[in-house]
Amino acid sequence: MLKDLFVSEVRVKILALMLPNPAESLHVRAIVRAIDTEINAVRRELSNLYNIGLMKRRQSSNRIYYTVDTSHILYAELLSLVSKEYGLGADIIASRKKLGDIRFAILARRFSRNEPSTMLDIDLFIVGSINLEVLDAIVKNYEQSLGKEIHYSVMGAEEFLFRKRRNDQFISKVLSQGRTMLVGDEEELCSI
Hints:
By secondary structure, this protein is α+β, with helices and mostly antiparallel strands. It has helices at 2-5, 9-18, 28-35, 39-51, 75-85, 87-94, 96-99, 109-112, 132-146, 157-165, 169-176, 186-191; strands spanning 26-27, 55-60, 63-68, 100-108, 124-130, 152-155, 179-183. Strands 6-5-4-7 form a four-stranded mixed β-sheet. The chain has a three-stranded antiparallel β-sheet with strand order 1-3-2. Residues 1-88 form the HTH arsR-type domain.
């Protein structure tokens, strides 16, 4: 879908590679190898992204290294788009019907940025009546590809509403973190 919104498929590949890894600095040839695209197309798109301020660059000897500028005004929105198109977020959205009746599905922004998590962090939070076997299979498959555990929580709509109205500490923490709404409306999530 993103390649339908954006004119350049190369730009989409670069964004998908670099937005979730903002601390990583890559030189042009490493990006070319990672996205399997012609070097001139990669250079052109990196130049475009640099010119709009989404990428920073630095030169070291004869190499130019690029990193994402997380302070760019569109960074969070672009990261959300990438999170919905690739990885766990895309798998949840694609499997929505098999998963059951999802009212809200939230992916933590920290997870989307490949930042480390603790046992107390929730990477994926789902509200609704869910087929847990399907969800568990999706999460386990993604855990294997990632090589780390994904912390997720599922809650029925009534329990979520009850705990939210009681200012439950767990719900408050989930709602206070940066997030990408995979399913559902964020305003509705916060207002109920």
